[in-house]
């Protein structure tokens, strides 16, 4: 499979070397095991070790998953933006960045949808309704639609070069909108629960003891899960491109063979005449 | 700078000339916008007095839907007869192409908004006040819509599915414009003009942001194979 398209040879080769050394099957399996164990421990910490909340009761336990998935969703979109920028910048242009951007955007959509879903499950018992028009909810919903659009755009462009360039531009143009959406919706309605960990730009946790431990563990476990899924999806994207290329090559070869047969037949016909 | 302006006018002039001759926006999109405003009256029973209260939101929803069609049209004319290649080969500054497309869309949208708004004032029985805010926020919102529309129209341009893809790409992006334009019209019509200023700021930031982004991304967007 040719990865050299549009990239300087030296740079591409060194990235390829790092990639093949890091993303081995053994490493990925180990990372997967760590991710599953981490999530299992998170379930244990969140469900049995941490006490129920004084006001929200057991419903509050959803926070140990909800807040980490939200953070991973945002991280995933940030990775997509960074990778898109690296693809667009000529000196670092490489199909890998495009693959990374696409893989991370897919995970971002999954994590963001999960965040909204879990938030709604939490909202029913605590707020009395699944959905309220709070600033953060609306912003997150808009974010989800922005990246659903990005993924839809990707699916619709067949040529890999055009797809990579257009989607990289789309990712950056969409990401630029996020602060505008956030601030405008925030002015519109600002009622969401205050930050639990960071208030006024300062790390100032409002929870303590095992609850804080469970939440912090959640960040780590979800981060490892994201890294694992990202690596798997990234390799899958490379394989998909390989198949596309091979199918294209096969189709071209088939067409050439047909043309040769036709030519031979035509030649024979002239000989007979 | 002067050359850039001349090129911008050239591209916008080309689009507007095509519109003058084909009358697609005027004869199809404008009646569509009016129809949407009529359908809102069916949806929200006019006797309940709801229409005048929610009129700003309805107006900007109608404009947004009509804008989708106008933007689609603006890029449909580029995809036929290899016009996109012609534009690329024309040696025009890509930024000028972007501003030209956006200016053409702004002109068309303003030509839609004026009759639509007039119709709404009459049929929804609105009392006009705060005209300065109404006009200023419409100009800013339209500029923002057209700039974002010109970027996304080109992104989806040339694809078989652009009619269905463009709304999905554009609507979440212009959500803040829709929100800001509605709130600022509400403030103007409600007589609380001071409440409109934060929204005017949002629309200004959005318009400047997408004008700058468009000028930057049009080069790579047009040069692709």
Elements of chain B, N to C (H/E): HHHHHHHH
Largest interface chains and counts: A-B, 30 and 31 residues
Cα gyration radius of chain A (Å):
25 Å
Number of strands of chain A: 2
What's the end-to-end separation of chain A, in Å?
A: 47 Å
What is the terminal-to-terminal distance of chain B?
A: 29 Å
Q: Helix/strand-derived class of chain B?
A: mainly alpha
The total of helices of chain B stands at: 8
| Total domain count of chain A | 1
Features:
heterodimer; A: 273 residues; mainly alpha; 2 strands; elongated; disordered N terminus; B: 225 residues; 8 helices; globular
Describe this structure in words.
The complex is a heterodimer of chains A (273) and B (225). Chain A has eight helices and two strands, in the order H-H-H-H-H-H-H-E-E-H. Chain A is mainly α. In chain A, strand 1 and strand 2 form a beta hairpin. Chain B has 225 residues and is mainly α. Chain B has one domain (2-223). Helix content of chain B is 84%, strand content 0%. In chain B, helix 3 (50-79) packs parallel to helix 6 and helix 6 (131-156) runs parallel beside helix 8. The longest helix of chain B has 30 residues, at 50-79. Chain A binds chain B through residues 88, 142, 145-146, 148-150, 152-153, 156-157, 159, 161-162, 165-166, 169-170, 172-174, 176-177, 180-181, 183-185, 187-188, and chain B through 151-152, 155-156, 159-161, 165, 168-169, 171-173, 175-176, 179-180, 183, 198-199, 202, 205-206, 209-210, 213, 217, 220-221, 224-225.
What is the topology?
The complex is a heterodimer of chains A (273) and B (225).
Chain A: H1 9-22, H2 25-49, H3 63-88, H4 95-127, H5 135-156, H6 160-175, H7 177-188, E1 198-199, E2 202-203, H8 209-272
Antiparallel strand pairs in A: 1-2
Helix pairs in contact in A: 2-8, 3-4, 3-6, 3-8, 4-5, 4-6, 4-8, 5-6, 5-7
Chain B: H1 2-22, H2 24-43, H3 50-79, H4 83-89, H5 94-123, H6 131-156, H7 162-190, H8 197-223
